[in-house]
Amino acid sequence: MVGPTIRRFRGGLLLGLVLSACRNVAGPPSSAVPYAPPPMYAAWWQLMERCSGREGEFHSIHWFVAPNATFDLEGETVQGAYYPDGDRIVIASGQTRDGRLVRHEMLHALLKKPGHPRDEFLGRCGDIVVCVAACLTDAGGPLDTSTTAPLADAASMTVETVVTPNEAYLSKYDGWFTVMVTVTNASPRRVRASMPASDQSVRFWFTGIGDGEGRNLDAPLALAPAGAAGSTRRFVFTVQPTGPEYGGLVPGSYTVQGVFAGKSAATVPFSLDW
């Protein structure tokens, strides 16, 4: 039996400007062409079902890609759009693997209504989906991330790990799944998370009998979860067990443990089967 190995994973929060929208309009731009959703989309869909509390049929969505980096939607320049008529989602060229953009449109498809409810786009699914420009306006403005709140050590935060699905199969969607590390302010006062220079990262570990152990070494610096008690920040990683970028996890039983700035979450079970 081969001994455990260290694997590298990439993921986390993206801060680039990504525009998306949802409108009750006739249909996608005429230049958009259908495309088959990559297997990772199934894992993203399950993640969106989990954060939104809504269930939907993934296979009912019809996917289109627009040929340019942006496209027009009723006079607005966007990179993604959901069209309720026919359950159609259009993603701009070059953005089909942008998880936060794609998941934004998935959330529209699950909600089945226009607009950007604050509780959904900045609340339950905050950080999991992108919300800028029109989304922020619809949602009532950005969250308060004041830099004047007192600093608190990461040890005072509540750190949790969420694996979706927690049982993956290589024969189904190529085994793709997501690992999410959440960081919640557990104190009754407004705080920011103090990031020690020695451990400015969000990462996760796999430990198990399947000869796989994983660690993320190159996540971006974590953003401070500024705000009142209960405010939460979320860091999403998408994992393909057999992909060269992700280390080739083999079938077996594992535990997964997220870490935020040196504070470890409780382990959660995960299994990978054929």
Beta-strand portion reads 25-35%
CATH architecture of the largest domain: Sandwich
Approximate helicity band: 10-25%
* Main structural class: alpha/beta
The helix-strand sequence is: EEEHEEEEEHHHEEEEEEEEEEE
Description:
With 274 residues, this protein is an alpha/beta fold. The chain folds into 2 domains: 6-12 and 145-273, Sandwich (Immunoglobulin-like), CATH 2.60.40; 21-131, no CATH class. It has 4 helices and 19 strands. It has helices at 40-52, 99-111, 118-124, 134-138; strands at residues 6-7, 21-22, 33-34, 62-66, 71-73, 76-78, 80-83, 88-92, 151-153, 157-164, 167-169, 177-185, 192-194, 202-208, 213-214, 232-239, 252-260, 263-264, 268-273. The strands form 6 sheets. A 5-stranded mixed sheet has the order 2-7-8-4-3, covered by helices on one side. Strands 11, 14, 17, 18 and 19 form a 5-stranded mixed sheet that branches. Strand 17 (252-260) and strand 18 (263-264) form a beta hairpin. Helix 1 crosses helix 2 (99-111). It is globular. It starts with 5 loop residues before the first strand and ends with a strand. The model is unreliable at 1-18 and 217-222 (pLDDT under 50).
Helices and strands in order:
Layout: E1 6-7, E2 21-22, E3 33-34, H1 40-52, E4 62-66, E5 71-73, E6 76-78, E7 80-83, E8 88-92, H2 99-111, H3 118-124, H4 134-138, E9 151-153, E10 157-164, E11 167-169, E12 177-185, E13 192-194, E14 202-208, E15 213-214, E16 232-239, E17 252-260, E18 263-264, E19 268-273
Helix pairs in contact: 1-2
How is this structure best summarized?
The protein is an alpha/beta fold and 274 residues long. It folds into two domains: 6-12 and 145-273, Immunoglobulin-like; 21-131, no CATH class.
